[in-house]
Amino acid sequence: MDQTTGIALGSLVGGLWLFLLWLGIVIWVYRDIRDRTEDVFLRVLSVLLAVLFFPAFNLPGLLLYLLMRPRESLDEAYSRSLEQEALLREVGEGVMCYECRQPVEREFLFCPYCRTRLREPCPRCRRPLSLFWVLCPYCGAPKGAEALHYAREPSSLAEPSAQTEG
C-alpha cells in the first residue's frame, strides 16, 4: 500500500466518521425536539439548524438549538402539572365540577367552564346548597316544594311541637 492510498483511505474513514457524527447530531436533535414540543414549526426549525451547519461539524447549529429548545420535555411538564394538581387537592382546594372535572370554588352555583349547575341557593338564607341535600344545614330550610311553604312561614320549622298542639 503506497502513501496516496493510505491518505485516501484515511480521509475516507475520517469523512465517513464526520458524516456519521453529523447524522447522529441531526437524529438526536430530531428526537429531543419531538419530546419537548408539539409545535411543528419549531421542530422543523430545530432540525434545519442541525442540518444546515454541516461544514462546521454541526457545532454552531447544535449550540443554537441548545439555546432555543424548550426547558422541559412534554413528559416533565405533564408530571409537574400532575404534582401541582395533587398538591392543590391536598391543600383542600380540590372541589371539582362533576361534569368537566375543572377546579371550582365551594360557593359557586354554576361551573364557569362548562355551565353545569353545581349547587342551588337556599330559599331562605341564600347560601349554596349541594344538589343532593334535602335541607339547608345552615338554617334548616327544606329544599323543593316544601321550601315555598317554609319561605312564607319562617317559624314553622323553629317550633314543630307548637304547631301540632294548636
Walk me through the structure.
With 166 residues, this protein is mainly α. Among the domains are: 3-68; 119-165, no CATH class. Helices cover 54% and strands 4% of the residues. It is built from 6 helices and 2 strands; from the N terminus they run H-H-H-H-E-E-H-H. The protein has helices at 3-36, 40-52, 59-68, 74-91, 145-152, 160-165; strands at 119-121, 128-130. Strands 1-2 form a two-stranded antiparallel ribbon. Strand 1 and strand 2 form a beta hairpin. Helix 1 runs antiparallel to helix 2. The chain is rod-shaped and about 105 Å long. The chain starts with a helix and ends with a helix. 11% of the residues are buried.
Strand order of the largest sheet: 1-2
DSSP, total strands: 2
Per the principal axes of the C-alpha atoms, what is the gross shape?
rod-shaped
End-to-end separation in angstroms reads 126 Å
Can you tell me the residue ranges where pLDDT is under 50 for at least 5 consecutive residues? 155-166
- Tell me about the largest β-sheet: 2 strands, antiparallel
Total helices: the number is 6
* Share of residues in strands: under 5%
Helix and strand succession?
Answer: HHHHEEHH
Mean pLDDT across residues: 80
Helix content: 40-55%
Radius of gyration: 34 Å
User: How would you classify the helix and strand content by structural class?
Assistant: mainly alpha
